[in-house]
Structure formats: structure tokens, C-alpha cells
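Structure ticket #2291
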Amino acid sequence: MEKIFNKKNTFILVGFAVLFKIFLSAALELHPDEAYYWLWSVHLAPGYYDHSPMVAYFIKITTLFSDSELFVRFSSIITTVILSVLIWKFSKKLFDEKAAAASVMAVNTLPLMLAGSIIITPDTPLFLFWSFTIYFLWKLIDTNQTKYWYITGVFFGLTMLSKYTGVLFLPCLFIYMLIDRKLIWFKNKHFYLMFVVSLAVFLPVIYWNMQNGWISFIYQLNHGLYNPKLNLGYVLEYFGGQALIAGPVVFAAGVIAAAVYFITKDTKKVFLASFSLPIILFFAFTALKRLPGANWPAFAYFAFSIAAAQYMLGSKIKKNVLIIGIMLNIFISVAGGLHAAYGIIPVYKFSEEDAVLDATNWFTGWKSMGKNLSGRNVKYAVADSHQWGGAIAYYARGKVTPVLDKVHNDRFNQFAFWDIPRDLDKSKVAVIKIDRRMRSDFSDIQGAEIFYVYRNGIAIRQYAITETDGYAMQSDIKSVRQKH
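Resolution: structure written out below.
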């Protein structure tokens, strides 16, 4: 174990990670959220209701020659290579080559990264551009060269073009400035010009929001904080989720490292702590109101994993524990990925309900549904969820166009900004209702055909299809949009 953290082994592990992600990307059907983002790439815009637009641009670029699942997700694979190089350079600059190797291995084996990051979401560009922002900010601190103010500004703007949570760079920056006595930056004109550059890069999203009543900004300000009641159980569940996506050893090591680094006088360690732990704690605070997605603080793991790796290299015992943690993470990631693809974990033996609620069910059954719809003599499919609309758009592409009705009964979404087909009331239409928890008997739908999605012999999803000649929208989408 003594010599495991070296350049050769790092190269081998990154190569394995890339190949494993290529395999999973090709083997798994798109999650409906991924299909929804793919639909964004078909309707390119400077902004969207749910998030900033960068994920749509990434998907558009990688699907120029193929729109298969692999190429929809291919930017996540490219990101793996870029981040590995960046983490190597950054960690080696901060510490040494052993720390660089340990950091790259730690990041690439996080279950969040090795298995989870194949899912193309706004977190993919967010993690990438956040990492560059942190890297070039450190270059500024290390060299004091003026150009790095502006390069940092560009990447912070790209971070904001990826996902709004990138704004957490600002409180993290203030925390670092406060602890490391960099408040003098407030007297530096380049400090402010850095944010002028960022604002210029972010202008497309500002323009889109201005044209749409600031609807996306308002949604994000309220998102996750609307529950008037506090729930400590969510906080515990949130930390449990973080221990799972980072692996228990790396997560514990990172928390301890960041806490210790905050009270050191080492600029490098304070820097890593400032741009990692506050993000994880921020989402713990929001968990008092609503359970955050486990992926929401993902971008914190750039600095967090480097801090954890360096801390665990401090003694032979801790280094061996880190190696065990990395091996455990590989096992968790490979087992989880293979289960998603082939259902190798017999969840159904515990209970049929657990089999239905298995989170990896999201990656199966959509292709058969799309084939079902494509084989019908219909032009449109009316659904009541942006996720179902995205899945229909992707897996029945070129044959059936999804339309959403009753958007006020589902989470408001980007479909409200796309025009309703003018011939909807004169065309053959399939109305589809999907029940992913097997809790409906569809008794309220007359003349419906019921279909089931099976996995390991258990019905995990059902959907009802009713064909009709023409369809009259039951909600005025423009008026609903105005209410939001």
C-alpha cells in the first residue's frame, strides 16, 4: 500500500473510470430528467425556467453526430478527463505528487463521480467550471498576476451559466478573505472588475429572465425553502446521503480535514476548507426546510476531496484507511452501476414495495414506452409531467411529439414556454398517465389500455394510454405561466 499513490496508478484508475462511464452511459436508458435536458438542447435558449442553460449547450455539442444515450451523456466523460488533469495540477501545486495522485483517485472513485456523474444534469458543467474558478483564484493568490482576476471572473460567469448554486462562490470567497486576512481585496479595483466580467458572461440568463418576469430567479429563491416547518430528520438524512455519495471514509475525512484546516494558519489549507465545507453546511441548513437532492452540493467535492486526501496522507494509518475507503467506493460504485444496468441486487427478495421504490428503476422502461407510442397512429402524446414529456420526446423522437397539459398540477417547468401545436385539436392524440409507484388502478380513465414495466419479474411502473381524435387543452398555459 505504501506506493499506491503514484502517477502510473493514477493513470490506470482514471482510465478505468472513463471506460466504466462509457459502459454505463451506453447501457442505461436516459433518466427522464436527462431526457428533459436533451429536449432543452433541441430548443436552445439563453435561459430556462428550471436552471441556467449550459447543460443544454453541452448536450447539443456532444449530440451533433449522434443522439444515442452515450452521446447525450458524453460531456460527463470528457469532464472526467479534464477534471483529473486539473486536480492533478492543482494538488501538486498545493502539496506534492503523492497528494496529487491521492486527490485524483479520491475524486474519481467517489460514488457521486464514478457512477453518479454519468447522469447529465446542470451539475456536470457546474462541477467543471466551479473547479476552474477555484483553480484560477488560487493562481491569483499564488502569483499575484492581474490576469488571473479576469480569468477567474470568466469562469465564475460560466459557473453561473451552469447552475445558480454557483453563486455560493461569493460567501465562500468572503469566508476565505476573512480568515486569511484578504479583506484588503475590497480596496483593489480588479476585485470588482472580476465580477463585472462574470456579470457580462452571465448576461444571457439575466436577459432571458428580464424577458420573462424574472421567473427563474424567483423560482430558485423559493426553491427548497418554502416549507414553514423545520425537520431535523431531513438534516440527518441529508448527511447520510452525503456519506453515501462520497463514501463514508472520504466524507468523514473531508469534514475533519476542513474543520482542522479552518483553524490553521496555512493559506493553502484554509483555501480548501473555505470552498468546500461551507457549501455542504449550507445545504444542511436548507434541509431544515426541505430535503436537498444528494447531488446539490456535488461541486464542493472538488476542494473537499483534495483536503480529505491530503489530511489522510498525514500518517501511515490514515493513509491505509484512505486506501480502504477508495476501494470501498469503487465497490459501491461498480455494484450500483451494474445493478442499475442489470438489476444484480435482489431488492425484490426484501419486499415487492422496495423493488418498486428502487431508485435505479428510473433507468429502465422508457424505451419500451417510446416504442409503444411510436407504433401508434398518433401525432402527439399528452402527458402531465415534464419528466414524462422528456422521456416521450427522446424515446419517441421523430414519431410522436409530447405536449403537457395541466401544468399547474405538476411542478411548473419549461414546457410552459414552448408553443402548443396548432393542430392538436384536429390530430390523433395519445393521452398518457404514468404511475411509477404502482399505486393507481386507473379506474377513473375510460377506455384506457394499461401497460406494465417489469424488472426481475416485478411490475415497477404502469401507464395508461387513451387514444383520441383531437385534444382540447384543459389549461391556458400562458395564463399559468403568468401566475408563476
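Closing remark: Residues 49 and 216 are 5 Å apart (CA to CA).
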